[in-house]
Structure formats: structure tokens, C-alpha cells
Specification:
Elements (H helix, E strand, L loop, with lengths): L4 E7 L4 H18 L6 E7 L2 H15 L11 E4 L6 E5 H4 L4 H17 L12 H9 L4 H26 L4 H10 L4 H10 L3 H22 L9 H16 L3 H17 L4 H12 L4
Parallel strand pairs: 1-2, 2-4
Antiparallel strand pairs: 3-4
Helix pairs in contact: 1-4, 4-6, 4-7, 6-9, 6-12, 8-9, 9-10, 11-12
Length: 283
């Protein structure tokens, strides 16, 4: 930890106190992780959602990134420059409780420790998946977006698992309970997507992110450190995420998700390949 270079950048109305608080949370994480860390982490603290979206839009255009879906995250992690970067949106963080804020920041710190180089952001599409996509009339742009959502889901599972193994349990429950919620916009989007194969496939793979994110928390054995009522409530939140899909789609999705978590290993690239092959069953 002593050698890590933490570069904190601010955009908009960000106070010194806020900057220092976020920096301290991240430094505390890196001290406690006790694994090999990246030599450098950039932290970009942005005041509003609009400014975050503008920053991401401009950077994607400049770097030729075509995938979408990350603009709405509370915090965001990437490593497109070869080293990890965390973007924190203060407007979104302001809507969370103190424990949930810690959970969000620690989750991104885990990503920076586990997925802190560009290799974790470039994935090949297995030939088997290309063949299935061709049979089902899905083009490369759909597969690219699906690979993005699947990889994000896998990495979220790995980050939560990593934090749980190191005792960061309370904050992850708090974050999950405040983040994993179904909205009326979600339901409306499903009504539009369900009758279009391309849109439905993308929608369902996007749902893998919250479901895999919470799995290490739901899988924890009963103990004094694991509040049963929070596990029950979190499990109910997952049910609510899926219940409007309809019985057939919900059962198919759960079958895929359950197969994924049973086979996930310590190798991120193997995990993404396996997860993508399983996710093709949702197409």
C-alpha cells in the first residue's frame, strides 16, 4: 500500500473536505486489502450527474468506445489508460446513507485492485457465441454490448466476493439494499424490449449485474456478522427485479444466473467467456 500513487482530481463544486473524505476511505481500503495493488489509481470526483455524463461521453468519443450503460452508475471504474480510474458522482452519492456510501466507494476500490489494467476491459467473443448470434439474427453491435454487460456483471461478483472475504460486509449490504431496486422506468423499458429479440437480449444481460453483485452476500452462511433480516430483504429485492419479466423469462434468467455463479472461478477472463456462453441462452 505504501507505494500506491493516489491522484485525486475534482470537477465542479467539490469541497476540500469531501475530497479528503473520499481519499481517506480509499486509502484505508488499500491498506486492508493486503494484496498486490496497482502502482497508481486516479480518482475523479465530479459534482453532478450531468457533468459525469458529459465527461464519459467526451471520453468515449475520443477513445472510440461504443458500449453504453455505465452513465447511470453511482460510481464508475475503468482502466482504459492502463491503470485504474475511479469516478465518483457526488450528486448520486448524496442519495445514499453513510454506510451505503462507504459500500459504493469500497466496491470501486475493490475493482481497482482486482481489475486495474486494460486487459480487464478487452474481451474476445468466442466463435461459438458468434455462431449462435448469427443463427439468431444478432449482429456484432449487439454482441459487443452484451459482452460489456456480462463482463461488468462478472467483475461485480468478483468485487463483492473479494470484499466479503475481507470482512467488508455491513457496508456492502447497505449499498446493495439502496442500489438494487426496480423502478417504473425498468418496467416500462421491459415492455418495449420484450417483443424485440435484440432489445430483450441486451435488457436481460444488463440484469445480470445486480443479480451477480448481490450473490456473495446472499450466499453468506448465517452468523452474527450477517444480519438475517438484511439477507431476506435483499433476496426480496432480487425477486422484485425479476418478477415483472413473466414466469418463462424469469425462470430462464434464473437458470442462467445460477449456472454462472456455480462455475465462477478466480480467473476473470475465463469467467467472462463462460458467462457469455451461458448468457447466449437468453437470446
Amino acid at each position: 500500500m505504501a507505494d500506491i500513487q493516489l491522484n485525486v482530481i475534482t470537477s465542479g463544486a467539490v469541497t476540500w473536505v469531501t475530497k479528503r473524505e473520499i481519499e481517506n476511505v480509499l486509502r484505508d481500503c488499500y491498506r486492508k486489502f493486503k494484496i498486490r495493488l496497482p502502482y497508481r489509481v486516479d480518482v475523479h470526483i465530479v459534482d453532478t450527474e450531468a457533468n459525469v455524463q458529459a465527461i464519459l461521453k467526451e471520453e468515449k468519443l475520443r477513445m472510440g468506445i461504443t458500449t453504453a450503460g455505465d452513465e447511470e452508475y453511482i460510481c464508475y471504474h475503468d482502466a482504459w489508460r492502463g491503470y485504474p480510474r475511479i469516478i465518483c458522482c457526488l450528486e448520486r452519492l448524496a442519495g445514499l446513507s453513510k454506510q451505503a456510501k462507504l459500500g459504493a466507494l469500497r466496491h470501486e476500490a475493490a475493482h481497482s485492485a482486482l481489475h486495474g489494467s486494460i486487459e480487464y476491459y478487452i474481451y474476445r467473443i468466442p466463435e461459438e457465441c458468434r455462431q449462435v448470434a448469427a443463427i439468431k439474427g444478432l449482429d456484432v453491435s449487439v454482441l459487443d454490448q452484451v459482452v460489456y454487460f456480462v463482463s461488468v456483471a462478472v467483475k461485480d461478483f468478483e468485487a463483492t466476493r473479494f470484499l466479503v472475504q475481507r470482512g467488508f460486509i455491513e457496508c456492502q449490504f447497505a449499498f446493495a439494499l439502496e442500489w438494487v431496486r426496480v423502478s417504473e422506468e425498468d418496467k416500462a423499458a421491459w415492455k418495449v424490449a420484450q417483443n424485440n429479440r435484440r432489445a430483450k437480449f441486451i435488457y436481460l444481460t444488463a440484469l445480470l449485474k445486480p443479480v451477480l453483485f448481490v450473490h456473495p452476500l446472499l450466499a453468506l452462511p448465517k452468523s452474527k456478522k450477517v444480519p438475517l433480516e438484511q439477507q431476506v430483504l435483499l433476496a426480496r429485492r432480487v425477486e422484485e427485479l425479476l418478477e415483472y419479466l413473466g414466469t418463462a423469462e424469469r425462470n430462464k434468467f434464473l437458470q442462467v444466473a445460477n449456472l454462472l455463479v456455480e462455475e465462477l472461478s478466480a480467473d476473470t477472463h475465463k469467467n467472462v467467456d463462460m458467462a457469455l456462453q451461458q448468457a447466449m441462452n437468453l437470446a
